[in-house]
Amino acid sequence: MSEAENKPVILLITQSSRSANMIEKLLRGYFTSLKAGDAESGWNLLVKLPVAVIACDLGLAIDNFGLLERIRNAKDRSLATKPVLLLIGEQDQGKKRENALGLGATDFINMPFSSSELITRTQMHAGLIGHHSVDPTLEMEHIPSVNGLKQLTDEKYFNSRLQHELSFSLRHKNVVSIGKLRVNGLKQLVAKFDKNAAIGILHTVARIIQENMREEDVLAYLGDADFCLLYPATNGIEAFAAANRILKNIEKHDNKINGKTVPIAISGAISSSVASEDTTVEKLMGILDELLVRALSEGDNKIVSVLQPDEKEYMTIERALKYIEHGAADGIKDHLGELVLSILPLLEHADLVLGLELESVNQSLKERLGKSKPVNTGHDAGVRETREKIG
Fold first, then answer.
1. Number of H helices, E strands in the chain
2. Is the pLDDT of residue 373 over 50?
3. 14-18, 99-103, 123-127, 155-159: which range is least confident on average?
4. Using the 8-state DSSP alphabet, how is residue 372 labeled?
5. What is the rounded distance in angstroms from the CA atom of residue 315 to the CA atom of residue 376?
6. How far apart are CA 31 and CA 51, in angstroms?
């Protein structure tokens, strides 16, 4: 077998032959490169060949062909879960990036890029580095002692990955989010049943977390019933939705000990930030610990989060729908008036075109919501805390 056949394949979909050639040259020692100049050609290669990673121009990923959407909606699960890295040019606007995230983009590479950043991020998403998590096909409850948990990332590795993401955030002004989930009442379970029962619960929680992670996310088990999650290039709203999804699935799980149903209770914390010169791993983990203490004080199945200064007050229809989709509707309650007012022009136009007889309804909405305060999208200093109840 040739050296090229041993390397994973990266598919480069870009209109810039110069960028494609540069990326191919930089990754030559790690990947076999395929190149396509448009979305349709890229799709045709993707469905025929064993591609490990896709790197695509932002514009080509979300143009009329709908490449990113086609990938994420593919019936073939191995295709639908392929990591898609978007190449972001200086002209690309923030809204396009946000839309791409909503469609399932895995990561972004800002142009121009550093060679070390390109190599590290493509290798990470291809699974060549950084994947120390348990194979999700393993039945973790049957692994003796705590070996299943030891196969997860440890604290040292987690901190090194967080430091890497903070360095990337400092250069590119991307948001980094981290989370901590604690299994509550584990010592009481040991006292009531035995140590093996408690370990079984930890295995179950670890498996459910992994089933709800993206490939680029990092999971660590810190001991003492604490799990830590790193969400690269992910804002606090998206990270909260991801943590909420995990908690929902844990709550739904029918956990049994000695034939009896024993619910698993979780508390969580989420912190998001854009790194500055004085941001350190220690500071962020300290903030996360403080948030977790607050979550524990509020009872089981709560998440306490600290978002970027502009995240809590900046709410779009798309974000609101995502909150509702993930069962976190409490997060939009302070914005409902503004959101309804923002779609009034659409309702009025629909009434005019479709004859829905909404004039009195629209007028009533204007009168009742007209005094709502406008959404503040400013970048004022500090952070805003939100507490969300799960369920």
1. 18, 13
2. no
3. 99-103
4. P
5. 9
6. 10
Structure tokens at 266: 């979780």
pLDDT of residue 322: 66
E strand or H helix at 307, and its extent? strand 302-307
Asked if the model's pLDDT at residue 27 lies above 50, the reply is: yes
pLDDT for res 380: 33
Q: How many domains does the chain have?
A: 3
Q: Do 228 and 198 fall into the same domain?
A: yes
Q: How many CA atoms lie within 13 A of 230 on its CB side?
A: 26
In sequence order, the β-bridge partners of residue 183 are 266
Give 4-38 as a 3 state SS string: HHHCCEEEEECCCHHHHHHHHHHCCCCCEEEEECC
Q: Are 214 and 181 in contact (CB under 8 A)?
A: no
The type of residue at 181 is L
Q: Are 216 and 107 in contact (CB under 8 A)?
A: yes
Q: Are 199 and 133 in contact (CB under 8 A)?
A: no
For residue 10, what are the CA distances in angstroms to 17, 35, 48, 218, 385?
15, 9, 14, 22, 41
Residue 119 CB partners (closer than 8 Å, separation 6+):
26, 27, 30
How do beta strands 226-231 and 175-183 pair?
A: antiparallel
Q: What are phi and psi of 215, to 5 degrees?
A: -60, -35
Residues spanned by the domain of 304: 140-314+383-389
Residue type, 289: D
The last residue of a domain, from among 73, 92, 125: 125
pLDDT of residue 13: 95
- Can you give the length of the chain in residues? 391
Residues 6+ apart with CB under 8 A from 179: 228, 229, 231, 239, 242, 243, 268, 269, 270, 271, 288
* Tokens found for residue 122: 């493509």
CB-based contacts of 50: which residues, under 8 Å, 6+ apart? Answer: 9
Residue 156 and residue 90 share a domain: no
